[in-house]
Design brief:
Two copies of one chain form a homodimer. Chain A is mainly α and 197 residues long. Chain A folds into two domains: 7-70, Orthogonal Bundle (Arc Repressor Mutant, subunit A), CATH 1.10.10; 77-196, Orthogonal Bundle (Tetracycline Repressor, domain 2), CATH 1.10.357. The radius of gyration of chain A is 20 Å and the shape is globular. The first copy, chain A, contains ten helices and no strands. The longest helix of chain A is centred in the C-terminal third of the chain and has 23 residues, at 124-146. Chains A and B meet through helix 7, helix 8, helix 9 and helix 10 of A and helix 7, helix 8, helix 9 and helix 10 of B.
Chain lengths: 197, 197
């Protein structure tokens, strides 16, 4: 194949480069905002970025992986949840509370999550996207794995969401300065009750 | 006293008129936003509105009353909390959960609260004002009346705040459509445990 036979590309459109990855993420943010999480597809994101869907799968494995990378979330629920669910059932509340408090204790891990929460509070598109992602990637999976009614998973999520919001956004004291283990002791029995009743 | 001896006033500044009340509320919103809830005073609000502090007390009883009226909140915590606290101790969780869910079920009661929550999430001044009001007017009072550590009151508040946010802003289903009594049954034991341990 000669150089002339190669398709013409815009500068920086070399597949597999760091730049292509950035283009996919920019396309993903646009598509997720426009269509929401449920209706967005890897194919649609690839088309928007002008790349092959296989390349998107190669970089990010799944739509969930693209979303997490696009929002700069510190972890992919599909990777983390099986480990949390797999341990002893009578300590699942403790594992969930400790995981969430530990993960969000690092500012660089917490800030993208807080930023999306903030945007979602004042923006209809963002709240729809967040609702669909939370439901599909987190709440439905845990509720199904534990065979509990979805509403119990939702109030457990509301407890932890409320605590993180009061700790990091409203900064209520002493909650904002409390150490992780004190909070695990107070909160774990609540989450445990919701998830085992 | 002759008409000429009366002090000159700007039009609409007649003490006791509906217009004066509106001026006090406009002044209150300005002062609370600038100084926060703790540092704002009835005297400062009266000065901003150009009225006597006694008139502000006459209309609104207290700084708390002015704040609630200025933010269009549906109730004054100082009026409501004693009744909730006074009942049987073993049902206080149930009374709190049912009160909050019933109060927020009416859109006209809920909307000013949701509006301030939204503003607080994205505005440093508003979040400080809300933090101080919540702490002074609600959390400290209940924690003191029940002799519980403040952090337990804060996680109980975080639970209910999270549920209201998921129900009315994020609109997670089935939580958003669940009836009050179903939610009371799930949530009351949590609040009860925090407030009696």
């Amino acid at each position: 194949m000669t150089e002339q036979a190669a398709p013409r590309r815009r500068p920086g459109r070399r597949p597999g480069s760091a730049d292509t990855r950035g283009q996919v993420l920019a396309a993903a943010r646009k598509i997720f905002a426009e269509k929401g999480y449920d209706k967005a597809t890897v194919r649609g994101i690839a088309a928007e970025a002008g790349v092959d869907p296989a390349l998107v799968h190669h970089y990010f494995s799944s739509k969930e992986g693209v979303f997490v990378a696009a929002m700069q979330f510190p972890m992919v629920p599909a990777d983390v949840l099986p480990k949390i669910i797999a341990g002893p059932g009578e300590q699942i509340g403790e594992r969930i509370v400790r995981f969430l408090l530990t993960m969000t204790s690092a500012p660089e891990a917490r800030e993208p999550i807080v930023a999306l929460m903030r945007t979602a509070m004042v923006n209809e598109q963002a709240v729809g996207m967040l609702r669909e992602f939370i439901t599909d990637a987190i709440l439905s999976r845990v509720a199904q794995a534990l065979s509990i009614p979805p509403i119990r998973m939702e109030v457990a999520f509301a407890q932890m969401f409320g605590v993180l919001m009061m700790r990091y956004i409203v900064e209520l004291e002493p909650l904002a300065s409390a150490d992780t283990e004190e909070l695990v002791e107070i909160l774990a029995p609540t989450v445990q009750r919701y998830l085992t009743a």
